[in-house]
Amino acid sequence: MESIPYASVVGSLMYAQTCTRPDISFAVGMLGRYQSNPGMDHWKAAKKVLRYLQGTKEYMLTYRKSDHLEVIGYSDS
């Protein structure tokens, strides 16, 4: 596993998950658990997530400018 960029791939997936793809949050969270000692099964799972992203690249969150912004906050003491 020394030559396999597992940590880099998981880091990239975390960035994608945070910015535009919350649908991969569970899978990326599970992959992140094995950052310190990944095995070949973890690498195969990471590649499966990458293939999922390739097949669904038209799905994403889009942030648009809005003239009407309403901030609502709740607090419970």
TrEMBL record:
Taxonomic superkingdom: Eukaryota
Protein name per UniProt: Reverse transcriptase Ty1/copia-type domain-containing protein
Originating organism: Vigna angularis var. angularis
Highest classification ranks of the organism: Eukaryota, Viridiplantae, Streptophyta, Embryophyta, Tracheophyta
Protein encoded by which gene: Vigan.07G090200
